[in-house]
Structure formats: structure tokens, C-alpha cells
Amino acid sequence: MEYKSTGDIHEAIKGALIDNKNAVQVIDEGKLRSSVIDNLIYNAVFNQDKDIVAESRRLITIAAASLGIRSASIQGLYDAMGSGKCSGFTVPAINIRGLTYDTACAIFRSAIKNRAGAFIFEIAKSEIDYTAQRPAEYTACCIAAAIKEGYKGPVFIQGDHFQVNAKKFASDPAGEVASLKKLIKEAVDAAFYNIDIDSSTVVDLTKADVNEQQRPNYETTATLTEYIRANEPAGVTVSIGGEIGEVGGKNSTEEELRAFMDGYVKALAQGKKGISKISIQTGTSHGGVPMPDGSVAKVKVDFDTIEKLSKTAREYGLAGAVQHGASTLPDDAFDMFPKRTTAEVHLATGFQNMVYDSASFPQDLKKEIYAHLSIKHADERKAGDTDEQFIYKTRKKGFGPFKERIWNMDAKRKAAIGKELEERFDLLFKKLNAHDTVEYAKKYVG
Question: Of the candidates 133, 64, 60, which has an alpha carbon nearest to the alpha carbon of residue 103?
Fold first, then answer.
């Protein structure tokens, strides 16, 4: 249902919510979950009237709060992991590029079944642009999905790869940092209380000394950390991640980690809370490496590096190392992450692939998306790329222009895709030993 006015909204929520402006009373949670929340989130995303969008998002946020659902920082849990108070599991951080509300619902259904409380919804700087999902919209989708599925407790929403553009930084470092600050402010204002800073792109490997290699990285990370601390809400300590090795590059070393952390601690203003985790490179690449037939090449993750650097990271009080580009790994790899004390693992492309490749995804819509990509992004085709390789690398960019068409696909098709995703999340919660973590979230986050 598309609302025509804010009056339509208040008519539609009758019997489910009473709006007292500063607080919302849920008088029929069943009605709220059955249809009201679906209509609110649709208008929060797609309505062309800014007032209707804002009012829909406001009602979602305060209705959620009245049900015990809130966006939160995972900092307390990561502090506990860093001090050895809890361990044995890896936190999945899940990027949702399209079908966001339905995918988030599938994650919450799985979390409830598995008593999981330690998992993160995230979206990268680049994904925000090509999926046409600004932070406030993404938060609304995640919070609305928690309401829909009856999930209660903290919801962790993260800005992933808030990345420094190396070329822009080289010509105008102040301008590039200012651009990132603008995005960070937008994200924190949208209740992204977990932010991953990625200035590993400016590591200078031409320098002979490892400290000098990492200097632009740790100094930039410290600058952005201080900015986040200056803009986080009262009572919230945003969980911040750093990164020492760009994904797809050479594997990270203990020497690099120590150089980064020692320099970062010195560069950070005295008394400011630092990062809670560190992303490293261990042999993966974002999205995997597509082969000529469109399949993904097998990669070998350096689990020895993960374990060694996680141990080193905890010497600095961090939760441990973070693994990126993992969603396309074989299933037998995921058991290894908790065994090797990985703090967090980032998962994105595998779920995108499941949506596109599902037998329930409309084939005519898929053909239309692929035809659009072939024209719109023709300049991204590399010499020698097969059609399959080109489509595999670019189809993530179909989610933005076709967002509403994908959202509005037949309900039975969406339900079937959601069930497939839910089963996948069931497997991942178990493989990462992230099931039965709801008590950790309650204890250390509240």
C-alpha cells in the first residue's frame, strides 16, 4: 500500500499502534507484524513524499524501541572477546545488496531458531551507491524486519569498508578525509553504531620501513576514529574497525599489525577509545574470482595467519582479526574460523548469488537486468572476459536500478527465496559456532 499523506499512515496503523509522537504504544503486535509493518517499510523506502518517508521511518524506530528492539554497538561484546571473557565463536557480518527487508527477515528467523544474538547487518560505502540504499533506509529495513519476525534485543548495523580512495587521497588528502567524514556523520545519524574504517588503500609499500608503510593508514584511521568519537550519541561507544591489508593484495603479517597498532595508539588523542578489531588479508578477494564459465575459483585461506594475527590483536585488547570476502568459500572452510579464533567474518556475494540463481527468481526480470548491465556497464568489461565473467562481476549493480521491481516480485517467489536464504543462515550460524550467543549479547551489550 502506497500512502498518499501522513494522514493515511495514521489511519493505517489504527488498531496496531497508538502514536504519542515521542513514544508509540504497540496495542496489537500481531496486527503490526501481519501487514502494518510491511506497508510502513515499503513507504519508508519507496514513497516519493519525503514527509511520508520520514514519518514511516519514525514510526518504525519508536515502535521497535517499545518492543525492545534497538540499533546498538557491538563494542561491549568485542571488549569481552578481547579480554578473554567470551570466545569460541565468530560473528557473521552480512552485506545485503538487494531484497533487503526480506533477506533481513530470513536472517532474524534463523537467529531466533538458533538463539543467535551476535550477528551484524552491514553495507559498504560502494554498496550504498550502487544498490541505492542510503544508511537511514538500510537501518529502517533491518529494524522493520526485526519487528516482522518478533526478534527482541540489540540489532547491530555496520558501515563496512568506509574506504579511502587512494587516487583521491594522493591528490587531495584533506578532501578525501572530509568526504569520508560526511559519510560517517550520515551513517552515525542513521544509527550505524559500528563503522569499519578502511584506509589500508593508502599503505605505501614503496617504503622500506614497515612503520612508514603503515603510517598514512594508522594516522588516517586515528583521525577518523576521533571524528566518530566526537559525533557518536551520548551513551553509545561506536565499535570501530581498522584494516591493515587490502583484500585481494598480499597476505598480512604480524609485523604490519604491530606497526599499525603501535602507530595508531600514539596517533590517537589521549583518552579516546580506539578500534575493537582489525581486518587482515589472508588470500581471499571480494566476490571471489570468476572463471570463464561463470563459476568461482577455489581459494586457499591462510588460517595460520588468521590465528596468529588474532592472538596478536588481543594483546592490544581487540576482539581479534576480521576476515573479508568469505561468502563464496566452500562450506568446510567456515568451521575453521571459530577454531582459529577469528573475531568476525564478512559475507556478501554468496547471498547475492543465491538470490539471482534461485529457481524462484523471475527469469524475465533477470534477463532484463543482465541486458541493462551489458549496456550500462559495457566499459567495465575487460579484454578476454566471457559473458558469464562480465555478468558475474557486474550483476551486483543491478540491485539499485531494479530495487523496486525486485522488492515487488510475486510473494510466493519471495517466500521461496527467503526460505533458501534462511536455510543458508542456519548453516552459517552453526558452522561459525554463532548459535546460542544471545546471552552474550544480553550480558555485554544489554
Answer: 133
pLDDT band at residue 330, thresholds of 50, 70 and 90? confident
Q: What is the CATH number of domain 69-354+412-444?
A: 3.20.20.70
Long-range contacts of 263-272 (CB under 8 A, 24+ apart): 263/211, 263/214, 263/215, 263/218, 263/219, 264/218, 264/221, 264/222, 265/316, 267/218, 267/219, 267/222, 267/223, 268/222, 268/225, 268/226, 269/222, 269/226, 272/225, 272/226, 272/229
Bridging pattern class, strands 69-72 and 194-198: unpaired
> Which of 154, 48, 150, 139 lies closest to 100 in space, CA to CA?
139
What's the pLDDT band for 299 if we cut at 50, 70, 90?
Answer: low
Dist CA 87 CA 133 (whole Å): 33
End-to-end C-alpha distance for the chain, whole angstroms: 35
pTM of the model: 0.95
Output the CA torsion 76→77→81→84 (10° steps). Answer: 70
Nearest CA among 62, 50, 51, 41 for reference residue 138 = 41
311 band by pLDDT with thresholds 50, 70 and 90: very high
Looking at the chain, which residues constitute the CATH 3.20.20.70 domain(s)? 69-354+412-444
Q: Is 242 helix (H, G, I), strand (E, B) or coil?
A: strand
| 8 Å CB contact between 280 and 245 | yes
Nearest by Cα to 156 from 66, 63, 70: 70
Determine the Cα–Cα distance for residues 253 and 5; give it in Å rounded to an integer.
Answer: 57
* CB burial of residue 365 (10 Å; 0-12, 13-18, 19+): middle
